[in-house]
Batch of 3 targets.
Target 1
Amino acid sequence: MKIRTSVSSFLSPRRILVGIHRDLFKIEARVAYDSRPAPVSPFEIMVLILEDRRFFQHDGVDLISCLRETLRALSFQRHGGASTIDMQLVRTATGYRQRTLRRKLYEMFLAWLIQYRYNKFEILRAYLKCAFFGSHLYGFEAAIQRIYDKNSGDKLDLEESAQLAAMLVYPRPLVPNKEWERKLSRRANHAKRLYPRLKQRFSKLPRPEML
């Protein structure tokens, strides 16, 4: 009887709803509302190129990426988690790191849910403000100040923008080494090669309040 009661409590609708609201409040704390027209910067374009090229087309979950990574996994190829920027914001804000299917599905659900609360610009910038860029570097503002001694992403050149975007996959270690520099440079160069062709995709977006 005690076991049955415990399971019932764990799966109760009230407990589930409380958990969802708790996590939504954590995400809310990360978002700065801003409806002013603010086109994406070169640094933000680099992030979108490397992390989520269909960011402005999907509703928090990129079904195309999910299908691709599932097929790769089934064929025993190297695969990723198909995480969108929306999902990365959810993961960073809530602090959950479990690598389970249940956690992934819940992450997708919250990523879809926040589409009804925030526009895409707010989601992108909220993620960049709390993303991990390296040892003691949380948020792009701290990373820019520490690494490049600049106080704005708009002041980064294309090389710096590409390197900083690449740090989302290869965070800066406390003591940078040759192996890290090699991996970072390879990913940054990939972004720079794609930038001239893909930047137009993000330069004609509607204003934030229209998303």
Target 2
Amino acid sequence: MDDYLKQTILTYNDQADQYAKKTTKYTPAPERDTFISLLPPKAKILEAGCGSRRDSAFFVSHGFSVVGFDLSNKLIEIAKKQVPQAAFHVMDLRNISVQEKFDGIWACASLLHLKRDEFPAVLKRFHKLLTSGGILFLLMKEGKGEKIVNSASMANKPRFFTYVTKEEINMLLTDAGFTVDRIVPWDQQDRQTERPSEMWLSCFARKV
């Protein structure tokens, strides 16, 4: 594992219990509702970077079949205990070994932990894993550049982030073979007033 990613996973492992509790406050509810509205009943969902199970639990509760994976073994341990109805694996976004096809892929704030030049191969793998008409959701941080961030919310421990513009992620998705349905920018402070202002991009794309 590259050093930048190793640092990030060590942080998630170290903060797994606290992170699992904290993320329930920051649920991307509008995006989840939109995502499931675009899927057929009892669809198969791949959660790429599932964390501790927050969104997997939601999908299971709505009758969907879920496979989730994450590189943090501590978060996967929590997910397995909390949502036994789903299948969880410790796996790298850059080496997804599942062979089945999915109606939807939910990659919520996970791709952004990779370097920019790693995005195209991962997006092409997502495209291959989707059924015809399948839906991809990405949540990305809006901006430019790549950097290590030591945030107070994670005990000032390091995590790596890559920031993208709306135009850039649109081009990356198109180049990977997707049709982009919508890319919506939003400020996290508008949803949780106690959080600092930071812009995100909610991206919905389709395999056609």
Target 3
Amino acid sequence: MKTIVTTLFLSFLSCCAFGQDKAAISAAEAACGPREVQFDITADKSQHPTPTPENGKALIYVVQENLGSTRVGADGKWLGGLQREGYFSVSIDPGEHHLCAIAHIGLLNHVSLHQLNVKAGETYYFLVHPVESVTSNNFAISQVDPDEGRYAVAKAKLNASHPK
């Protein structure tokens, strides 16, 4: 009986492993930066800049809620790192962009992705936040409306990050 249960369990695991499309996963994760890059992140409570978009560009604010540390990237390049209750902003060119957030939760890295069409002169706000889900992701990067975004930025601490 143990042999039958073990065989069924191993068959189930191999089925799940073969069900993954590794090429599609790699293509989707192309929005992220190189996996090996990690950040040193510091919170600066003495500053709270809230810039406006540069001429001909858009501005993205990313605010992290109740999570450990997260790396945020766009179009295959890391924009920066975040810690709990932190934020940063970055200028970005108009057009289509693909955002990526990787959060280290427990022993695993979890990925969340978001597509965005950016217009010059506009400001966009994103929250990196925990979610309850039946999937393996327990966090998301989500665009929020400007009122919610400004409120989240006002409550957060400026995060400065540098690759290790």
